[in-house]
Write a structure and sequence with these properties.
Number of domains of chain B: 2
CATH topology of the largest domain in chain A: Molybdopterin biosynthesis moea protein, domain 2
Shape of chain B: globular
Number of helices of chain B: 16
Helix content of chain A: 25-40%
Helix content of chain B: 55-70%
CATH topology of the largest domain in chain B: Hypothetical protein af1432
Number of helices of chain A: 3
Number of strands of chain A: 4
Number of domains of chain A: 2
Strand content of chain B: under 5%
Largest sheet of chain A: 2 strands, antiparallel
CATH class of the largest domain in chain A: Alpha Beta
Distance between the termini of chain A: 23 Å
Structural class of chain B: mainly alpha
Order of helices and strands of chain A: EEEHEHH
Oligomer: heterodimer
CATH architecture of the largest domain in chain B: Orthogonal Bundle
Radius of gyration of chain B: 18 Å
Strand content of chain A: 5-15%
Strand order of the largest sheet of chain A: 1-4
Shape of chain A: elongated
Number of strands of chain B: 0
């Protein structure tokens, strides 16, 4: 799956969403083509075909991560680890890497 | 209140049962002379299971160029082993109804299991380890918790409340309250279901992968589980990253840029698989 689409439960699908992949029914027949724009009618039809989730294109603009919130949450997740000392270094690395990942820092290969 | 290993094992037959065909698949793990077409037909008789399995097989994690539309086709494209693991994944998530243990969040449990499975699969690829085995082990690593919650719901509720109060580790609280932990319970179930030895070891030792004889699969599942917690994928407000074994971490030997790719891929596969498995 690429960054530009996500799976959305049919119950949360809204008219105007764009399919990022073709949609097959349980028998492998194409229900909707890639690029199709969902309407109330097509969403109802998906429900009748017992489709549970649909791949739709992401549209929201990319927002920079909130550094303070990310760090606060990671502090909470790792609250039982002794990240000040040297003994728990694997957890320390994991914590640092996840922080770099969440904050989209550039990492040298 | 202490549960003996005998009590634990005695109750395994009373566990909410899986569809018969899934039990057959579990029993066939190390079998060579299995009649694949017969199994494929049996699975196909269960429409919900078939649909879920095919959606998984056609998800981008497996990168099929041609969409599989029958179980038989999935077996042809992905191989019997991969398909069997997908069928198991589809059947397992959703079994074990809870309800008598209000503190147990089965959604969070399966989200964590799927995240661990996705990460284990990604790690296995980097380590040139069998990806299907890693996926299944990741998915089932916490199965002992389901045993305890199903067999001893009231007592397990006390475990979970105590754990919340102390904000301590789960295994320690289980031992203190019940006298057994979910690793022991998981190992008992894995043996009862005749999982392969490697799989049993991984379920029994994923918390302590440096144990002699634990096997490399236990290392992969250990780290994948820690990553799943650290990526906060279970959706649990009280999420807590467990101890990370430096031995296991070193054994994987991945550089930071590789880890960042692993995180990304884990999240993407997780998102896709939860949409399929938990719909």
């Amino acid at each position: 799956m690429s960054d530009d689409h996500m799976m959305v439960p049919v119950t949360q699908a809204t008219p105007g969403m764009v399919l990022s992949d073709e949609l097959l029914d349980n028998h492998g027949l194409v229900l909707l083509a890639k690029g199709a724009v969902l309407s109330e009618a097509t969403i109802a039809s998906l429900q009748r075909h017992q489709i549970e989730a649909v791949p739709v294109a992401r549209v929201e603009a990319h927002r920079a991560p909130d550094e303070q919130a990310v760090v606060a949450r990671l502090d909470h997740l790792f609250r039982q680890h002794d990240l000040g000392g040297d003994d728990d270094w694997a957890a320390k690395l994991l914590r640092r890497y996840v922080e770099d990942y969440r904050l989209e820092r550039q990492v040298a290969p | 209140m202490t549960i003996t290993s005998e009590e634990l094992v005695q109750g395994l037959d009373d566990l909410p049962s899986l569809p018969a065909v899934v039990m057959e698949l579990l029993g066939s793990i190390d079998q060579e002379d299995i009649d694949i077409s017969v199994l494929a037909r049996k699975v196909s008789a269960d429409q919900a299971l078939t649909a879920k399995t095919l959606r998984l097989a056609n998800s981008s994690a497996f990168g099929l160029q041609v969409k599989a539309t029958t179980i038989q086709q999935a077996m042809t494209y992905l191989g019997f082993q991969s398909t069997r693991n997908l069928i198991l994944a589809a059947a397992m998530t959703g079994c074990f109804p809870s309800g008598r243990c209000p503190s147990f969040d089965d959604k969070a449990f399966w989200r964590l299991s799927i995240a661990t499975a996705a990460c284990a699969r990604v790690l296995a690829r980097h380590m040139r380890f069998n990806q299907d085995v890693a996926f299944t082990a990741g998915l089932l690593h916490g199965i002992g918790r389901l045993v305890l919650v199903t067999r001893f719901p009231e007592q397990y509720d006390a475990v979970l409340r105590e754990r919340k109060r102390l904000d301590g580790d789960l295994q320690g609280t289980e031992r203190a309250v019940l006298g057994v932990d979910h690793l022991l319970a998981g190992a008992a179930l894995a043996e009862h279901w005749q999982f392969s030895g490697t799989m049993q070891q991984a379920i029994a030792f994923y918390h302590a992968p440096e144990t002699p004889g634990a096997g490399f699969l236990a290392t992969i599942v250990h780290v994948a589980n820690a990553v799943a917690h650290a990526l906060d994928l279970a959706g649990d407000a009280d999420e807590l990253v467990p101890a990370v074994s430096s031995v296991a971490w070193t054994a994987l030997g991945l550089s930071e840029d590789v880890w960042l790719h692993v995180f990304r891929e884990t999240e993407l596969q997780f998102e896709e698989m939860t949409a399929i498995l938990m719909a």
